[in-house]
Amino acid sequence: MPNSTLILAKRSLKLNKVNSGMGIFLAAIGLLAFDVLPFFYFDALAVLVLLAVPFMVLGIFIFSTPVSLLYVYDKNNGVLEYLISLGWNQGDIFKRYLKAALLLGLILFTVELSITMIVDIFAGAQAYILHDLAWLTLIAGFGLSVVSFVTMAMIAFSSLQRPVGGNTNSPLALSLGGLLILPTFYIQAFSYDVGVLVDLAIPVLAGALSIVLLILSSRLIRREKMLP
Amino acid sequence: MHDISFVLKEPSIYVVLGPNGAGKTTLFRTIAGILEPYSGKILLDDQNTTTSGEARKRMSYLSQYNAMPEEMTVYNGLKFYSDIGGGDLDKAIELLDLEPLKDKRFSDLSQGQKKRAAMAKVFLHDSDLLLLDEPTANLDPSVSKEIRDIILKLSKDKIILYSSHNLYEATDIGTYLILIQNGSLTMFDKISNIKPKQYRVGIKASEDISKILDVQREGDYFVLNVSSPEEIGLAVKKLVENGVQVTETRPLDNPLQGFFETPVIEAEKMLKKEAKRDAK
Questions:
Q1: Above pLDDT 70, what percent of chain B?
Q2: C or N terminus of chain B, fewer CB within 10 Å?
Q3: What is residue A115's DSSP assignment?
Q4: Residue among B35, B56, B71 whose CB faces A87 most closely
Q5: What's chain A's average pLDDT?
Q6: Of the candidates A7, A15, A88, which has its C-beta nearest B71's C-beta?
C-alpha cells in the first residue's frame, strides 16, 4: 500500500483549500506574536508567547481538518466501502486517515519551527533558541494531541457529523477540537501561571482522550459506520 | 437477511433481482466481505470472503456509488486504487475505452462516463467474481445498453453477480435468476426455465380480429391471453386461414413480471384483511 497516507494528505489539501489557508493564516499570526513582536515589545515577551500558543496550535489543528472532512466525503461517496472491498479493514482505514491528519499537522509545525529558528539565528537571538524550542515542543504536543483526538473522535463518531448543506459538513468532532483550544485564548488574562498550566493541561487531556479512543477503537470503529 | 444459500458454479451472469429494499445491496456487501454475516459464511472456493484478504482480492465490487475521488482526473483516480490494490491500470483504461477521458476530472464527466470510469476499477484486476450492484441505475436507456454491452463483452469466463430491479434488463443480460424478496432467497433458476402462467400477446392485424379470437383491443394491439407459446402459433394460423394479414406479434409482459406482482397482491390482500378486522 505505497504512499496511501501521503495521497490522503494531498487529496485533503486539494479538496479543502479554505481550511488549509485559514490554518496557515492563524499560524502566521502566532508566528508574528512569537517571533517578531518580542523584538519590539520585549517586556511583554511572556504574554506574547502565551498569546502565540493558541494561534499556532489552532493553525496546526485547522490545517489538518481537511483530513476529517475528506473522511466524511470518502464515506459518503463510497470510497471507504470500496477500500474495504479491496481488503482493507476498518483499522487500516482509521490508521491511514489519522496518519494523514498528523502528517499535515506535522508539516505546518515544521514550518513554524523552521521560521522561528531562522528568525532567532538571523536576528541574533541565539540565546532564546532553547526557550523557543521548549515552547515549540509544547505547541507540537498540544497541536498534535488535539489533531489526533479530533481525527479519532471524528472517525469513531462520524455518524454524528452534521450536514450543513450541499457537500459541506460540520463534523461534531471539529467543534470539540475548537472547544479544547478556546480557553487558551483568554486564560492568560487571569494569570501567567494559570495560562502556562492550562497550556500544559489541555494537551495532556487531549492525549489521554486520544489514548482512550485508541483503546476503544476496535469497538467504536465498525465497518457499517464506514458505508455511505 | 435470512434463508439465503446458493452456489455459483459456472461462469455466467447471475442476475440478482428484487424490489427496492429487498436486500440486494446487503447481499452484495456481505459477499464482498464488507459486512459480516451474523451467521453462516460465504466461501470462494474454500476461502471465507469475510476473513480472507486473499479471497477478497479475487473479487471485484462495483457499488451503486461510483466510489471515485471526484476531485481527481480519471487516470489519477484509477491510479489511486491501483496503488492501493495493484492491477493493470493501462489495461483497464483500454478495456473501458477511457483514453479520451483519462485526463478529465471525474466530477466533470457525464453520468454515463462516470459509470464507465467507475467500472474501470473493477477491471483493474483479472478477478474471478464480479459483483455489480445496479450498474445501470439512474442511467438513460442508451447509456444503460452501452454499459450492459461492455459487461457482456468483458465478462466471458467470469462469474458475475449483477443486481437490478429492472425486469427487462434482467432478461436481457442474465442467464440465471436469483430472486430476493423481503431479505430472503425465493428463487434460483435459469431464466430460460422460467415460464409465466399466462402469456399476454399483442397482435397487429389488417382488420378487426375480435370475431375470430377472444381478444381485447388495447391501443394499436389486439391482446390475446394464452397459457402456452404453442397457442400463439395456433392463433396466428387461425387468423391467416381466415384471410387476416398479421403484421406484428409481440409479448406484452416480461416473463419475470409475476415475481414482482405477487408480493404486491399479497400485501393488498393483507391490507384488506386488516381493514376488515379493524372494521369489525
A1: 91
A2: C
A3: H
A4: B56
A5: 86
A6: A15
Cα A149 from Cα A135, distance rounded (Å): 21
- In angstroms, the separation between the Cα of residue A93 and the nearest Cα of chain B is 12
Identity of the residue in A1, A77, A224 whose CB atom sits nearest the CB atom of B65: A77
DSSP SS3 for A165: strand
Of A119, A110, A132, residue with least CA distance to A59: A110
**Rounded Cα distance, A47 and A191, in Å:** 10
Residue type, A53: V
In sequence order, the 6+-apart residues with CB closer than 8 A to the CB of A160 are A171, A172
Report how far apart, in Å, the C-alpha atoms of A181 and of each of A51, B136, B175, B270 are: 12, 48, 61, 59
Chain A hits for B60, Cβ within 8 Å: 85
Q: In 3-state terms, what secondary structure has residue B186? A: strand
- CB-CB under 8 Å, B67 with A14: no
- CA angle (B51, B56, B60) in 5-degree steps: 150
Quick check: B68 contacting A, CB < 8 Å?
Answer: yes
Would you call B16 helix, strand, or coil by DSSP? Answer: strand
**Start-to-end Cα distance in chain A:** 23
Contact B137/A at CB under 8 A: no
Mean pLDDT within B188-196 = 83
pTM here is 0.80
